[in-house]
Amino acid sequence: AQTVTQSQPEMSVQEAETVTLSCTYDTSESDYYLFWYKQPPSRQMILVIRQEAYKQQNATENRFSVNFQKAAKSFSLKISDSQLGDAAMYFCAYRVSAGNMLTFGGGTRLMVKP
Amino acid sequence: DAGITQSPRHKVTETGTPVTLRCHQTENHRYMYWYRQDPGHGLRLIHYSYGVKDTDKGEVSDGYSVSRSKTEDFLLTLESATSSQTSVYFCAITPARASGNTIYFGEGSWLTVV
């Protein structure tokens, strides 16, 4: 079974600085997708960024980028120029390309200090 | 915006009573999902549907049933609610042309079983 682990229950960052959230996963599959979702206090699940496992290039979306290390099964999220609105729970998730289940990590709570 | 409407958004019910949560979408998405979110567990898949009358179990399906009699609506039923089913329930969809089979979530339904 696939598992996703987020080893940092909480992180904090100063406004305008950079923070990296860690995620590791365990799978025997070769074709899969990885995602980061943001969940603000409203509890809405918002897609931040996705990465296809077959792509070597790391995904980037504005201030958000990932460091995807397929051999190490690591998928970290880097947030640059952190803003107060970035404060939220962040969930790493995995999905086999031919599957229907999204497997989530336990989440990391990010606090942004002004 | 995933174009999903969940109802009710908040409900308090008594142990042993039946409860039905509704997920409605207007964009003809084939795949629909029900997840639950509990502290420390991220989101976990309860059931999913891949078409009208086509459903399958997820990771935590015990105590839940689903129905999809038309494309727009995916219903989640708790036949006899228990306190362990107190949770936040998310409906989700995968758009037909979604990159990476991305799953998009509704706003959630808060269910409290007393």
One letter per element, helices H and strands E, the order of chain A comes to: EEEEEEEEEEEE
Query: Biggest β-sheet of chain A, characterized?
Result: 6 strands, mixed
Instruction: Tell me the strand percentage band of chain B.
Output: over 45%
The gyration radius over C-alpha positions of chain B equals 13 Å
Question: What is the 3D form of chain A?
Answer: globular
Instruction: Report helical residue fraction of chain B.
Output: under 10%
Largest interface: A-B, 23 and 27 residues
- N-C termini distance of chain B: 32 Å
Percent of residues in helices of chain A comes to under 10%
Number of helices of chain B: 0
Shape estimate of chain B: globular
Query: Whole-number average pLDDT of chain A?
Result: 94
How many beta strands in the DSSP annotation of chain B?
11
- Our measurement of the CA-to-CA distance between the termini of chain A, rounded to an integer number of angstroms, reads 41 Å
> In DSSP terms, counting alpha (H) and pi (I) runs of 4 or more, how many helices of chain A?
0
Task: Show the helix and strand layout.
The complex is a heterodimer of chains A (114) and B (114).
Chain A (H helix, E strand, L loop, with lengths): L2 E3 L4 E5 L4 E3 L2 E3 L5 E8 L6 E7 L7 E2 L2 E6 L4 E6 L8 E9 L6 E2 L3 E6 L1
Chain B lengths: L3 E4 L2 E4 L5 E7 L5 E7 L5 E9 L2 E4 L6 E7 L2 E6 L8 E8 L9 E2 L3 E5 L1
Parallel strand pairs in B: 2-11
Antiparallel strand pairs in B: 1-3, 3-8, 4-5, 4-9, 5-6, 7-8, 9-10, 9-11
Descriptive overview:
The complex is a heterodimer of chains A (about 110) and B (about 110). Chain A has strands spanning about 5, 10-15, 20, 25, 30-40, 45-50, 60, 65-70, 75-80, 90-95, 105, 110-114. Chain A is mainly beta. The radius of gyration of chain A is 14 Å and the shape is globular. Chain A starts with a strand and ends with a strand. Chain B is mainly β. In chain B, strand 5 and strand 6 (about 55) form a beta hairpin. The mean pLDDT of chain B is about 90. In chain B, the strands form 2 sheets. In chain B, strands 2, 4, 5, 6, 9, 10 and 11 form a 7-stranded mixed beta sheet that branches. A 4-stranded antiparallel beta sheet of chain B has the order 1-3-8-7, with no helix packed on it. The interface of A and B includes residues 95, 100 and 101 of A.
